[in-house]
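User: Some background: our group keeps a shared notebook of sequences we're curious about, and every so often someone picks one and asks for a predicted structure to add to the entry. Today it's my turn. The entry only has the sequence so far, pasted here. Could you supply the structure so I can complete it?
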Amino acid sequence: MQNQLTQLELQHLRELISGHDLANKKLTEYANQCTDQQLKQMLQQSAQSALNTKQQLLSFLQ
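Assistant: Of course. Here's the predicted structure to add to the notebook entry:
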């Protein structure tokens, strides 16, 4: 079994990583501007989830 990604799979993986990175940055910025504590916490959790997913996806590149 071959463990290498095809060029198309690699491109899709990079796009997914980029999307989760952007989501993390935006959600973090929204949370920093938020005054409602419940909403702020929800945004922070979502930002952390996006970061975790990004890190998981990055592991496929190793």
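Suggested note for the entry: Residues 7-33 form the longest helix (27 residues). Residues 12 and 54 are 13 Å apart (CA to CA).
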